[in-house]
C-alpha cells in the first residue's frame, strides 16, 4: 500500500469518492478536487472522510494553489447526455481531454500519475479486448475524450519524464447491489431485458472493491511511457446466466425477456493486470448465488 500525499480528481464521483476514502482509511494524506455540483457528495462530506476538498473546475480554474503530492489519481470526467452530461459530444470530448491535460501538467513532478480510461475506447465487441487491441470507439464524447486523454498522457510522460499508468476500466459496479436487483426480479417473476436466448448480451464486470485495490496498486507500476492495463472482471457472464443462477438458488422459475440489452458485449481480457497484481477477489456469479441463497433461507 502506498503512503504519502495523494490527490484524487473527481472526488465526488462514483469511483473517486470510494478511492479517496480507501486511501484515507489506509493512512494517506488525501486531497480531493471536484466541482461539488451534484449534491450528494459535498465538501463537508469529503472532510468527514479525512480528505481535504478543493472546489475547482479542472477545465478553467487555476490549480496553482493546490498542494504538491506524491500520487495523482485522475478520476474526473464529463459524461454524455444519456448519463446526465452535456448534450454536445464535442464539449464532452474537449472537457475530458482538457481536464486530463491540465491535471497531468500541474502535477508533472509527482512520483506517479494514474489516469482512469475506459473499455469504451474499444466500442461494442463480442470478443475480449486486451491492451493490444486497436481502439474502435463509438461517437460518445466520453469515449473519444478518454482516447485523446491517453495520447496526451503519452506525450506528457515522455516530455516531462513523469511515470504514469492508465487503467481501462470495464464496467465497475457493486456486485452486491446488482445481485440484489437480479434476485428481487426472480422473486417477483419479472424479466430483465436482454435475457432471451436470441439476445446473449455478455460482459465482464468488476466489483468496486477490486477496482480500488488495482487502482491504488497500479501506481507502483507506473512508467515512462505510461503502462496500460485493461481492468475488467474475471468472468464473462450474460444476463440470462445471472437470472438462471439466482433462480436455481431460489428454487423459482426464471422469466426471460427477448428485448435487446443494447450492446452485443463489453468484454475484457485483463490477464496482464492479473499477472502483475493478482486475481480479483470477487466473482459476480458467486455473489448472485450467495445473495439468492440468503434470500431463500430468510
Question: Helix share of residues?
Answer: 25-40%
Decide which structural class fits the backbone: alpha/beta
**Order of adjacent strands in the largest pleated sheet:** 3-2-1-4-5-7-11
- Proportion of β residues? 15-25%
Distance between the termini: 39 Å
Commentary on this structure:
The chain is α/β, with parallel strands linked by helices. The chain has nine helices and 13 strands. The mean pLDDT is 94. It has a seven-stranded parallel sheet, sandwiched between helices. It has helices at 14-25, 43-48, 89-106, 141-160, 175-188, 208-218, 239-250, 271-277, 284-296; strands at 5-9, 29-34, 51-55, 71-74, 112-118, 125-129, 164-169, 172-173, 202-203, 206-207, 227-231, 237-238, 265-268. The protein has two domains: 5-171 and 205-231, 3-Layer(aba) Sandwich (Rossmann fold), CATH 3.40.50; 174-204 and 235-266 and 281-296, UDP-galactose 4-epimerase, domain 1 (Alpha-Beta Complex).
Outline of this structure?
The chain has helices at about 15-25, 45-50, 90-105, 140-160, 175-190, 210-220, 240-250, 270-275, 285-295; strands spanning about 5-10, 30-35, 50-55, 70-75, 110-120, 125-130, 165-170, 170-175, 200-205, 205, 225-230, 235-240, 265-270.
